[in-house]
Amino acid sequence: MSNLDNYQAEFEKARQQRAGEPARIGRVRDEAMRRFLAQGFPTTRHEEWRFTSVAPIAAANFALANGSGAAGETTARPFEIPDVFGAELVFVDGSYAPALSTPGTLPAGVQAGSLSAYAAGRADAIEQHLTQVAPFDRQPFVALNTAFFRDGAYINIPARTVLEKPIHVLFLSSGETRKDEQSSRESRPHFSCPRVLVVLGEQSQAAIVESYAGADGAEYFTNVVTEIVLGDSAVLDHYKLQHESTQAFHVSAVYLKAARSANCTSHSVSLGGALVRNDVIAVLGGEGGQCALNGLYVADGQRHIDNHTTIDHAMPHCDSREIYKGVLADRARGVFNGKIIVRPDAQKTDAKQTNRALLLSEDAQVNSKPELEIFANDVKCTHGAAVGQLDEDAVFYLRSRGIGLAEARRLLIHAFAGDVLNRMALEPIRTAVERVLQRQLARALAA
Amino acid sequence: MLTVRNLHARVAGREILRGINLEIMHGEVHAIMGPNGSGKSTLARVLAGHPEYEVTAGEVTFEGEDLLEMDPEERARAGIFLAFQYPVEIPGVNNAYFLKAALNTVRKQRGLEELDAMEFMTLVRERMKQLDMDESLLSRPVNEGFSGGEKKRNEIFQMAVLEPKLGVLDETDSGLDIDALKVVAGGVNAMRNADRAFLVVTHYQRLLNYIVPDQVHVLTEGRIIRSGGKELALELEEKGYGWLEQPVGG
Asked: Cβ separation of A396 and B77 shorter than 8 Å?
């Protein structure tokens, strides 16, 4: 049985178990499955995947997680975030875990909970937006997610509503496996396809944190799609914190669509995973919109982290700011591809992109590429990329004052990551990320 | 305190120091003078343990310990401080945070209690005042965007906070105007006592009007070719280095 057949079989099985879903979504799933089977997994012959081989994902015999691990969930949570949230939604292996979640008290009219439950209840915003923001026609992993997602988070903030406290959406992977029915000699690792839909009405404001973690050392595959819709003048501070198991595969796509004068900041922090691919696609679809994309990734061992971003300036007077930084140790590999599109209508665009990577060993490697496609003439677009090692003069300077070698290096790496961290407005999140970062650096520097 | 015997060192395969001998006692100020390229700064960096310099022969003992066996941070903790000729800018590392980390490491080594934030700030404010420094420099990244004079002052300020046994000043006077020079010299003089010693590396005699040395050594081509009292500096100022230099290769 080829691996695509395996997904076909899993799809048929999942179809039997689905009930209460709007017919539209069922039809979209069928179409998405067709598209996934037609395309298969991408190879490095695809320009978008040139430096990232997903062959290990394609070769594995994953079974769709059914959420049975949710009951006795004991997975450690790497980000120790204090209870600052208005609500916390926890998912285990892609299924909602009500016992682990805290619905909290949110302002009137705010919806935050299980996507499948709200879909069954025919929530308007789901009818209108789900699967409409993230196109799957040419994106096999988006197609795969669309065909398979069991559940995920749905957050809807009505117009003119301001969330005082952030909402946390936590996706945990238990690392449980499924016995193979045919051979029974083999247990199959799980894949899960969480889906997130965030809808902000006009002039609303929210901070939303998505985090991903898994049982230490477990092998599994998380394939997530997040769709975010911002109405006119909506303001969103969005965080995606990824700290999967060091043996896990993590593929994610965040699709953002911003209307007139909307303001969106999206932070992507990747600290875990064996093979990680993050796509962020932001469309500035109304005049005067603002978008900031901040990224930080750290990899050691033989881990691989790929960040692909696209900022699509479709309308005039929009600003975008992007800064991505990576720290790579041992034989780790990083990829950054930052595309900025300025469409013919998008006059007075102001776009700035920076990406930098710090290589801590001679075997670490990064491929970085800015891609500017500018079709308007009255625009300001700048980009800068740099790859370097730790400044040895700075290391010596610190040591000459009594600071030990490891501490000196840690200080300098932290300083390097600092301007991404400092852009995180939610202080408890920044602190939690810094703590995990310090642990990781200690491990990377000890090696 | 410091004994240097037959020290040879090279950088990038080129031999710079070719047999330095030097003895510094507690409480003394020694000046090293010499033309550009004579090896003055190399000597300073080798004493601080700069990893780019390779010691090929000779020995250095500091307070009875083998200095050459020690890492740069161990030397700093043992009480050696190098005021850099070109202080390094370190974006993203806060000056106060860095100095507090350094001070507490050094204090720990000396068996002293670590200072808390309040005690640290009290000490730091006092030292900054002595050096006529703007307190806002504390909250900025280390040396980043500092003027040349601010960087040199910052070196002396760090030295005043860390209170080393031996201060090695590598051309601290270069690029300073006369007012800044007086302030810097005043900072060094305030630290002089019977236990502490200084090695002042300079190209010009002018600094030595303000930091009066006990001994002056002239370094050319990696060797000390003449030592004397403070008058030697004046003589050099008058006659230049040429009158001392031995013809090379006959």
From this structure: no
- Return d(Cα B148, Cα B125) in angstroms, integer: 21
Partner-chain residue, chosen from A401, A408, A416, that has the shortest CB–CB distance to B158: A401
Q: What residues of chain A lie within 8 A of the CB of B142, using their CB?
A: 397
User: So what's the pLDDT on residue A123?
Assistant: 83
Kindly determine whether residue B72 and residue A396, on different chains, have CB atoms separated by under 8 Å.
yes
Token pair 């006009």 is found at A202
How far is the C-alpha of B116 from the C-alpha of B100, rounded, in Å?
9
State the distance between the two ends of chain B, measured CA to CA, in whole angstroms: 37
What pTM was estimated for this model as a whole?
A: 0.89
Segments of chain B scoring below 70 in pLDDT: 245-250
Q: A415: phi > 0 → left, psi -120 to 50 → alpha, else beta; which?
A: alpha
> Quick one: which of B101, B80, B81, B79 has its CA closest to B90?
B101
In chain B, DSSP finds a helix count (H) and a strand count (E) of: 8, 12
- What SS3 class is residue A270? strand
Beta bridge partners of A350: A319, A380
Q: Which residue of A has its CA nearest to B93?
A: A415
Contact predicate B230/B212, CB 8 Å: yes
The C-alpha R_g of chain A, in whole angstroms, comes to 21
3-state per-residue secondary structure call for A134-201: CCCCCCHHHHHHHHHCCCEEEEEECCCCECCCCEEEEEEECCCEEECCCCCCCEEEEEECCEEEEEEC
Q: What angle do CA A317, A318, A324 make, to 5 degrees?
A: 150
Average pLDDT over residues A415-426: 93
Token pair of A28 as six digits: 């979209």
Instruction: Check residue A102 and report its DSSP letter.
Output: B
The CA angle B181-B83-B131, to the nearest 5 degrees, is 45
Indicate the helix (H) or strand (E) that contains A67. Answer: none
Q: Which of A392, A402, A412 sits opposite B77 (nearest CB)?
A: A402
C-alpha distances in Å from residue A415, one per residue of A248, A408, A438, B112, B155: 28, 11, 12, 29, 21
Q: Do B82 and A414 touch (CB under 8 A)?
A: no
Q: Chain B: residue nearest A420 by CA?
A: B92
Whether A415 sits inside 8 A of B93 (CB atoms) is: yes
Give the mean model confidence (pLDDT) for residues A349-371: 95
Interchain CB contact of B50 with A (< 8 Å): yes
The ipTM (two decimal places) reads: 0.95
Q: What are the CA-CA distances from residue A48 to residues A277, A279, A384, B3, B164 (Å)?
A: 11, 10, 21, 63, 57
Helices (H), B32-147: 40-48, 72-78, 95-109, 117-130
What whole-number distance in Å separates Cα of residue A152 and Cα of residue A114? Answer: 6
Neighbours of A16 (CB within 10 A): 7
Of A293, A370, A294, A383, which Cα lies nearest the Cα of A335? A370
Domain regions of chain A by residue span: 3-284
| Nearest beta carbon to residue A402 from set B73, B87, B90 | B73
